[in-house]
Amino acid sequence: MKHLILLNLFLIVCLFGCFGTLERGMRPIETETSSAEALTALAVLELSTPKTIYSGQDTIPLELQIQNGKFDLLVPFSSVAMERAYRQLIVTDSNGVTVKSRKTVPLGNTLKTLYKDGKSVRCVQGFDMKAGTTQTVLLNNLHEYYKLTPGRYTVKVALELEVYNEFMQDQHPQIIELEREIYDIQNSTNPQFTPEVKKEAIGYTQDQIKFIQEKYKEDLQDIYLPTKSRRGKALLESNTIGITIE
Residue 212: which H helix or E strand, with range? Predict the structure, then answer.
């Protein structure tokens, strides 16, 4: 409930403007934020590299710090904790020409189907990014993605950060199977499955689910974000750094 209240308030002020009360189940709205103040409130990207001058054979590591603002945010895990954060890496040469990448940074999204109340829910692995915290994402070697000849270059990162307002705890495979059974029971047209029989069968299955949840609660720490609960996205840009290849 804390997440829902804070996130709704934040998105009303910083992402969408004044458009009325957000309701659960509402279709996601994609909006790019134009206000610099709003982007700062969401997160700040800080890009860095250990040196400014490299040889053609040197490894060129990059470090991206994603500094969260004033609000707890539910965001895709891959956007703030994996190389996918560098998917929109922009490298420009001394003539202002954008250098084409030699290969694409992998998407890295972990999609999973979970179940709630007997219904399947398509989800993406999530991350609970607390207010005021900083996540660090490393790119081991810029040369892996760009063939850089001797010269001067500028580098920055654009990050399309999606924000969600609901999450689900990870589910053990046995729980997923039991949830499917509940779905089948609910939708069964077998005349022997009277309402009373269905109720009893569902109750028994739900007790099994609770037992497994308790047994494996230490192993099910990951959270997943229902794709239908996405409330919006904002395009963030890092600072620009300069490097020289000798």
Answer: helix 195-215
Question: Any idea which residue has 């059974």 for tokens?
Answer: 181
Residues in the chain predicted with pLDDT less than 50, given as ranges, are 1-40
Least Cα distance to 14 among 237, 241, 239, 231 occurs for: 231
d(CA 169, CA 147) in angstroms, rounded, equals 42
C-alpha–C-alpha distance, residues 22 and 163, integer Å: 14
| Count of residues in the chain | 246
Q: What is the pLDDT of residue 41?
A: 59
What does DSSP assign to residue 39? H
Residue 79, burial from CB neighbour count under 10 angstroms (0-12, 13-18, 19+): buried
Burial of 45 (0-12, 13-18, 19+ CB in 10 A): buried
Contacts of residues 227-230 at CB distance under 8 Å and 24 or more positions apart, as own/partner, are 227/122, 227/123, 227/124, 228/25, 228/27, 228/28, 228/121, 228/122, 229/28, 229/164, 229/165, 229/166, 230/28, 230/162, 230/163, 230/164
The reported pLDDT for the residue numbered 234 is: 84
Look at residue 237 in the predicted model and tell me its pLDDT: 93
Q: For position 122, what pLDDT does the model report? A: 93
Which residues are CB-contacts of 22 (< 8 A; sequence separation ≥ 6)? 8, 11, 12, 165, 231
Q: What is the 3-state secondary structure (H, E, C) of 150-174?
A: CEEEEEEEEEEEEEECCCEECCCHH
Spatial distance between the Cα atoms of 166 and 226, rounded to a whole number of angstroms: 7
User: Residues 223, 167: contact at Cβ < 8 Å?
Assistant: yes
Both tokens assigned to 20? 């009325």
Q: What residues contact 84, with CB distance under 8 A and at least 6 apart?
A: 78, 105, 106, 107, 108, 109
